[in-house]
Specification:
The chain is of the alpha/beta class. The protein has a single domain (5-248), classed as 3-Layer(aba) Sandwich (Rossmann fold). It has helices spanning 17-28, 36-48, 59-68, 103-113, 116-133, 152-156, 170-183, 193-209, 231-252; strands at residues 5-10, 31-34, 71-76, 86-91, 94-95, 144-149, 162-167, 222-225. A five-stranded parallel β-sheet has the order 2-6-1-7-8, with helices on both faces. α2 packs across α3 (59-68) and α7 packs across α8. It binds cytidine-5'-diphosphate (CDP) (2 copies). The site of one cytidine-5'-diphosphate has 16 residues, from α2, α4 and α8.
């Protein structure tokens, strides 16, 4: 049979990757994998063991944690296309969905994600999850997969059928992130727009300049600036592009494939 359609969504922090990816997956009946959640889980695991993630000498301990931790994702889709799917994240069977979004984890996650062996461990877990979620055996297999992160188009799914690189002005991104935090009811100390904006910019800089699979737009990715778009607008654009490419592929490939 044909391999499941792969959509890779990358971009800087709070550019809209996960919201967009979830809604695209819901519209198309595809699976969704949030790869940032893996790095956030490893960071949380390290912090809760009293490890300082920015201390270079702790890197091998964090890498061991990355390998031994069990990370699970469960996305619940809705039958109403306009409502937002929810993803629960489990670290060693414990629901850590809110804990991994706190300011403390956000502050340290880029240091953890810069450790080469941590990335190798996460890559393995992400690939395993991608392979099982879209396997065509049994009924759980879905027709495609949407994955979001920083290195999906460049490293995780280099042969993805569609690669999207989302960008947005950092001030706009900070305002959106604050609104999100307010909605979820989690009040963080010092979370004014300047502080959030600075944190996003600092994290982007770390992600862009690190040695191991840095944040970079893949050569064959489509760049989408969401600063002046609506969520619905960008989801529509991506869904249409998936349909266009599926049609092109089915008319150009022999019927045996
Ligand atoms: O939602 P937000 O953009 O704030 O962050 P995220 O997607 O949850 O990712 C958190 C951090 O994990 C990023 O800042 C990166 O340092 C790292 N990450 C990565 O290195 N590679 C990925 N594929 C996904 C996330
Ligand atoms: O995953 P990433 O960190 O890239 O972004 P996110 O967690 O999806 O957060 C983006 C926030 O901006 C969400 O609250 C979206 O609803 C909002 N937003 C957007 O993504 N795109 C727009 N055009 C407008 C708002």
């Amino acid at each position: 049979g044909t391999r499941p359609f792969q959509v890779a969504i990358d971009g800087p922090a709070a550019s809209g990757k996960s919201t967009t990816a979830k809604m695209v997956a819901q519209r198309l009946g595809f699976d969704y994998i949030d790869t940032g959640a893996f790095y956030r889980c490893v960071t949380l695991a390290a912090l809760s063991k009293g490890i300082d993630p920015s201390n270079q000498t702790q890197a091998s301990q964090i890498s061991n944690l990355a390998q031994s931790s069990h990370i699970g994702l469960n996305t619940v889709f809705s039958s109403s296309p306009s409502s937002l799917p929810t993803t629960r994240v489990f670290l060693d069977k414990k629901d850590v969905s809110s804990e991994i979004r706190t300011g403390t984890v956000s502050k340290h996650v880029s240091a953890v994600a810069a450790i080469g062996p941590v990335r190798e461990a996460v890559l393995q877990k992400v690939r395993d999850m991608g392979a099982t979620s879209t396997s065509h055996e049994g009924n759980s297999g879905r027709a495609g997969l949407v994955m979001d992160g920083r290195d999906i188009g460049t490293v995780v799914l280099p042969n993805a059928d569609l690669k999207i690189f989302l960008v947005a002005d950092s001030r706009v991104r900070a305002e959106r992130r604050l609104q999100e935090l307010a909605k979820s009811g989690s009040k963080e100390e010092g979370s004014d727009v300047e502080t959030v904006q600075k944190d996003l910019e600092r994290r982007d800089e770390l992600d862009r300049t690190r040695e191991a699979s840095p944040l970079r737009k893949a050569d064959d990715a489509v760049e989408l600036d969401t600063s002046h778009l609506t969520i619905e607008g960008q989801v529509d654009a991506i869904v249409q592009e998936v349909h266009r490419r599926q049609k092109a592929a089915s008319s150009s490939s022999p019927s045996s494939e």
